[in-house]
Amino acid sequence: MQNYNKAGGGGGGGQHSLPYQTKPQVPNTSGQEAYFNTLNNTQGKAGASNIYECSLHGILTTPLSTFIQRVKGMMRCEAPVNYKEMVFKTTIQSAGPSWAEGSILPSEIHIRYEKNTVYVRYIGSPQVKENINAMIRNVIDIKGNQSFFTYIENLGYVKDYEYFVEGYCYSTYNLSLYLVNHKRVLADGTRGDAINKHSMVELQCLSGEEGFIAAAEHLNTYAEYLYPFVELIKFDHRNLVTDPIVQPQQAPPPSQIPGFPAHMMTMPGSGGQPYQIGQNPYTNSNF
Amino acid sequence: MGYKCIFLFKGTIPDIVKRIEFLGGVKVSTWAINCSLYLERLPEGTGMAPREFHLLVFDEKPKKCFMVSRDTILETDREIISILDKANSFKKRQTTEVIGSRYEIGDFIIRLGPIVFRQEVKGIAVEVEYSACATPMTSPFNCTKLLSEFINGNLGPFPEPIQTHFDFSQYPSLPKHYSDLHTSYQYVHFFRNTNIN
Q: Which first-to-last residue range defines the signal peptide (chain B) (predicted)?
């Protein structure tokens, strides 16, 4: 049974990874007082959450059984992960400051629906810092209910895409590893086929505002033990959708690209429709 | 929790405290609520009416807050305030606070305190809860009449009788049993009717 308070919930790798730790987890290694202090301060103040998620991502291409053996040796708990996740984005244009006037904030609200319970996570835009070898995103977790869907739409958010997540969460005192598969949501809301044949791996922990470096080092130490089963890297998912080289209007269809693998010319579960660059494989809609 | 009635008391706090203590009421704790109006931040010149909602925080529910919009009432964790701040799409415009005391008289709980809006006292809010009944509409005991008798008979006299029956039909999704969601709507309605929010 997944324990959100201890192990941190959520999971998944890649762009849609979602840890839902209701309490921040801290490393218990020495020399990380700033890490502890910041977390303690932020927990004490209601409504003043400055908790950041530090994460590394990877795709498992090696045999699953050997990887799981290694992970079980490193982690203390194992819990199944099975939920539906909906990602909402705001449509409201910013009214300031001046440099952001008229822009739409890149923040997202992820709603996880699991066993008739609604978990909500606000995710800020990723902070890619060159001297810190982990992806850092500001997160705020709350527990909602069925009315939250109506409410968030009233607040100007619209559903962008949704998917199912299945897999396992392995956790120890201070960090969590998610080994999951993402599945497409069919038109009737039921579970479709897997989006990728490989499992996605995410290693993550939560940090206070001044503990990025300690958290990143902690993650990378664990990541080294998982190599070469999986290579966990700092990955900015925005590159997938904002790469200036790949413009959907100008890029040729995959069938016209020399050397493009034939088996990738159609999207799985799309009834043989050709794959278009810039198309969201999660919802069959364009980015 | 029991059914509640909220009304504006047009006297002074010592007056009503004297009546409560005469009835045997005992002050048990302090009490505070905070109601903020949030308006959507729209770029200048859009000409659209901004969306709005009220966010209520009760000190008796330290981890929860209640959001009341035109057609939805939501109970959620208090961290939603941080999300609103970071999302930057809604801005807190005005805040009304009530900070006072809580008294208990048998099955009745009375909370009262001055309503502070823009650092001015706008009146005295009194909340009377009958803790023995949580289903005002279907109960054969009909606690609204009992509350009315208690308020008008013991805390009055009032120029006009205090109405204890409250119409929640605007929010059909509210649960059957009286809850904090009902109380939130009553407070928003109360502040609007008293021309505070």
A: none
